[in-house]
Write a structure and sequence with these properties.
With 459 residues, this protein is an alpha/beta fold. It has four domains: 29 residues; 265 residues, FAD/NAD(P)-binding domain (3-Layer(bba) Sandwich), CATH 3.50.50.60; 95 residues, 3-Layer(bba) Sandwich (FAD/NAD(P)-binding domain), CATH 3.50.50.60; 48 residues, no CATH class. 25% of the residues lie in helices and 22% in strands. The strands form eight sheets. Strands 5-4-3-9-22 form a five-stranded parallel beta sheet, with helices on one face. A five-stranded parallel beta sheet has the order 10-17-11-12-13, covered by helices on one side. Strand 15 and strand 16 form a beta hairpin.
């Protein structure tokens, strides 16, 4: 009789578990994870979640993987009426060398150039997804409408962009990996409305041909600003580059490449600059960056989202107010592919239960210390996402806390040397070949005519 009652109780408990969507494995409740986006962040997360046997679904609004790495010649909206997500342009090559672009455990082909084209790298991403068999976990053409926190679970509502069918599901964890390079940040400059030339953002820049023989103004000196200005300068009659960057580029530009300070105002046919000078202009390309934009996250998520920041985040990614949400890839000035991979491994270890986060109070204190450093330097809160010289220490901190394999220090060292090469000559830095010797050391050589000019970098 005792055995019979125990058996009934066991059956009853299993039925209750199943009625709430629970599946027991080794006596524990299985966690469900929603991954938003099938770019590098989403694919990296999917790979590690799969390896750990964690139940997950990836929601992707387009029909493709790869996010911004997929080139699309169109601008504006796609065939489904949605804004084109990718900011890829035709002649783009990676601005970091091959070793820092490699996804962990999946070597980049040896015959790929040191700084591959977008197409080469996109094919590499597709091969990665195929090798780890990730596409079967992705629901394509699903636009996430709302993510909310209710009754201690995440409710994720999404809609099929063609049929309009809406679905809402519950998850224990949410990984946000849809990127932050798709909503343009546009300046507001007096006179724009009367200017008769064209004005676009770099998000809509695809190729230089339309600017052949024209007077083009490029605004901004970030990676895209420098790259696009050089791309357009090959065909334009004049390239005016307006920016206020304090970075000392030592590149020797051609005579028709003219540096200017910030814009004061437009008139019908040109631009006045803050130094009082004036230039006749045919076309303007704003390379002024992007805004953080997560319209599907509602107030219950506990984040303050502004165009230049998402706060508060622990370790640049964990939602402190609701730590079962992780945002991957928000960091700036780092080996982004390497960093995304490390963050995906950290998030997976967290979900797996391999380590425990500090208390909310401790995480807030850690975030507040970082914020105070930013403010003490008179810098905007957007710098809260900046790694820069802190990059290698960041990787070490992730390992110390979560137990994941450490990102080799050689990655940060390569980025440091590559940054200096960019300052020296923006036309030649992609001719350097970087070969990793071990976790600390690498060799840099100059391709073609300087094959014998090799430098060994060690600690």
């Amino acid at each position: 009789m005792k055995f019979y009652c125990t058996a009934l109780l066991l059956v009853f408990c299993v039925q209750i578990s199943l009625s709430f969507g629970y599946v027991t494995r080794a006596g524990s409740r299985e966690k469900r994870v929603c991954v938003i986006g099938a770019g590098l962040a989403g694919l990296s997360s999917a790979r590690y979640l799969k390896e750990e046997g964690i139940d997950f679904t990836v929601l992707e609004v387009t029909e493709y993987i790869g996010g911004t790495w997929r080139y699309d010649p169109r601008v504006g909206t796609d065939e489904n009426g949605l804004p084109i997500h990718t900011s890829m342009y035709k002649h783009l090559r990676t601005n970091l060398p091959k070793p820092t672009m490699e996804l962990r455990g999946f070597p980049i082909p040896k015959d790929m150039p040191s700084f591959p084209t977008w197409e080469m790298y996109y094919n590499y991403i597709k091969d990665y997804a195929k090798y780890f068999d990730l596409e079967k976990y992705i629901k394509f053409l699903q636009k996430v409408i709302n993510v909310s926190r209710k009754n201690n679970v995440w409710k994720v509502k999404y809609k099929h962009v063609k049929t309009g069918e809406e679905t809402e599901e519950e998850y224990d964890y949410v990984i946000v990996g849809n990127g932050h390079h798709s909503k343009p940040r546009l300046p507001e400059i007096p006179g724009e409305d009367i200017f008769t030339g064209t004005i676009i953002h770099s998000h809509d820049y695809r190729e230089p041909d339309p600017y052949t023989g024209r007077r083009v103004l490029v605004v901004g000196a970030g990676p895209s600003g420098m790259d696009i200005s050089i791309d357009v300068a090959y065909v334009s009659s004049k390239l005016i580059h307006s920016h206020h960057s304090k970075v000392h580029f030592r590149t020797r530009f051609p005579d028709h490449f003219i540096r200017k300070p910030d814009i004061k105002e437009y008139n019908e046919t040109g631009v006045y600059f803050v130094d009082g000078s004036y230039e006749e202009i045919d076309d303007v390309i704003y390379c002024t960056g992007y805004e953080y934009d997560y319209p599907f996250l509602d107030e219950s998520c506990g984040l303050t989202i502004k165009p230049q920041s998402v706060v508060p985040l622990y370790k640049y990614m964990v939602n402190i107010n609701e730590p079962s949400m992780v945002l991957i890839g928000l960091i700036v000035r780092a080996c982004l592919v390497v960093a995304i991979d490390a963050q995906a491994r950290y998030a997976t270890a967290l979900i797996k239960g391999n380590f425990t986060l500090p208390s909310k109070e401790e995480m807030l204190e850690d975030w507040q210390r970082r914020a105070e450093i930013v403010y003490s330097k008179g810098r905007p809160i957007s710098d809260i996402h900046l790694l820069a010289e802190k990059e290698d220490k960041y990787y070490d901190a992730l390992t110390q806390e979560s137990g994941i394999e450490r990102v080799p220090p050689v990655m940060f060292k390569i980025r440091t040397v590559d940054t200096e090469a960019k300052l020296e000559n923006l036309y030649n830095y992609r001719k350097y070949v970087y070969t990793v010797l071990d976790n600390e050391n690498f060799v840099r050589s100059f391709e073609d005519e300087m094959r014998n000019n090799t430098t060994i970098y060690s600690p």
